[in-house]
Specification:
Length: 305
């Protein structure tokens, strides 16, 4: 190789090196641009999430304030409603005493009837206010509930005694079926009592004369770790199209006489919320002239002795 050729090769290397450096520079520049874009995107996402979090916090605070205002409003309204109702009922009782002392009640049976209507309507309005308040509290109460072990075969017979007398007076028939070897259930007794009271009140209210009302308890065929408590009555049937709405607030089955049966459609809505509170389930079936509410409660697995 001549000296001239070596000189030409030496002069050719710097352009190749400069081209390679330029490519590396462009590649690094592109990587930097992509990194900057990614950082910018992440910052934008972080800012957006921060704003969303702050908006959510503001929304939660607003809901808490509205809930507090609602509670204050309900408390004030309940007081304003309960006070005159209590006064009316007390006045009716005092009037009855005065008329009794004057010997006017025996001579005018119509007065006795009017006083009874007055007392019944006061009780009805008081129950309405109580149901509204209870339903409102259940919808906002998120406190964990402490369940306890309860033997239905011991508890139910005492619970149903007042209803047996009522059923007898209304010329209905009452039956109760409870096996003695049932396992205990996990529940909150006061809430369970309220649930069954509402269901039995409905049964007593809508069951015609000479028809029957019953309570039956059995181990669930679907879940052996649960008990099913059936509250049923004959002579009444709920249409299939109405069953999905029967637990809605203020809903009344079409055709029911509001003056004869009373109520404002809150009882079963309250039952639904109470059932959720005690971690149970409830469903309604109705066919062949019978309506049955099935309450499913978790059991303690082993039979109680």
């Amino acid at each position: 190789m001549t000296k001239q050729n070596l000189t030409e090769q030496g002069n050719a290397r710097p352009p190749l090196r400069r081209s390679r450096q330029k490519q590396i520079y462009q590649h690094v520049k592109q990587l930097n641009a992509e990194l900057e874009q990614q950082v910018a995107n992440q910052c934008a996402i972080a800012i957006r999430q921060s704003r969303l979090y702050q908006a959510a916090q503001n929304h939660v605070q607003e809901l808490e304030n509205l809930n507090r205002l609602k509670d204050d409003f309900l408390s004030a309204v309940s007081h304003e409603l309960r006070t005159p109702i209590t006064n009316i009922k007390m006045a009716a009782q005092m009037l009855e005493v005065k008329l009794q002392q004057a010997g006017l009640l025996e001579s005018d049976s119509g007065v006795v009837q009017y006083l009874q209507i007055l007392r019944d309507e006061c009780d009805r309005e008081t129950n309405l206010v109580n149901d509204l308040l209870d339903l409102s509290r259940l919808e906002t109460d998120i406190k964990p509930l402490r369940l306890s072990s309860t033997r239905l075969q011991d508890w139910l017979p005492y619970f149903v005694e007042p209803f047996q007398e009522r059923v007898k007076n209304q010329r209905q028939h009452f039956q109760i079926y409870i096996p003695s070897d049932l396992p205990s259930v996990q529940t909150e007794p006061s809430m369970l009592k309220r649930i069954l009271t509402e269901l039995l009140n409905n049964a007593c209210k809508y069951t015609p004369r000479d028809e029957r009302i019953w309570i039956a308890v059995q181990v669930s065929q679907v879940n052996v770790d649960a008990l099913e408590l059936h509250i049923g009555n004959s002579g009444v049937e709920v249409a299939e199209t109405e069953r999905s709405r029967i637990f809605d607030k203020f809903y009344r089955v079409p055709g029911a006489d509001p003056y004869r049966h009373g109520g404002k459609g809150l009882g079963l809505a309250l039952v639904k919320k109470l059932v959720e509170q005690i971690r149970a389930t409830i469903q309604v079936t109705s066919c062949s002239g019978e309506t049955i509410f099935t309450l499913t409660l978790l059991s303690n697995l082993t039979p109680s002795t």
